[in-house]
Amino acid sequence: MQRPGQDPVAKDDVPWWMKYAGRGLGTVGSIIAIFLGAWNCASILFGQIDCLISGMWQMIAGFLVVMIEAPCCCLFIDFVQNLSDWVEKKPYWNRAAVYCLIALPAVFLCPGMSSIFGSGLIFTTGIIYGLMSLGKKAPFGEMRTTAMDIQAPSSSMRTVLVENTQPIGVSTPTSTPASIV
């Protein structure tokens, strides 16, 4: 039974240091990404339009991440706390997917060191949240027992997924009719 106001996804099995690593890297990394995005925007002086667009994208991505991870940095915007609370109620994999996806276009548009480093920090934050969504590892004894089990899911998966299959080496070749040869 879920209590009122309780998260729909149990997030208690995530280590405390991983929660702080995700939030800290998201905050610091997005602020760095904003400054490096502004540096990319300065490339318009050399006529590089793609780096200008990349810098603007990186600044928007950094601002979005800082709004979600550290709403205290954006007190001047009314809806930031509501957005941050709404994202906190979602599973970790949602945040991981969004962070990884919004980090990529800036690198593809202008593959310079400032976009790779700035967007890489946002992407790494997404990786940390992806690892948090996997949850805790099983105890050593349970993992060892599962690995040594003959009836492991990987050996019985073949019969569940596809009925009436034969291994490739067992199938007999069909003979060709004489009229075709």
TrEMBL record:
The keyword Disulfide bond does not apply. The keyword Membrane applies. It is found in: Cytoplasmic vesicle, Secretory vesicle, Synaptic vesicle membrane; Endosome; Presynaptic cell membrane. It is a multi-pass membrane protein. It holds the Pfam family Cg6151-P. It comes from the Eukaryota. InterPro entries: TVP18/Ca-channel_flower. GO terms for biological process: endocytosis. Homomultimer. Associates with the dally/ magu complex. This is Calcium channel flower. It comes from Atta cephalotes (Leafcutter ant).
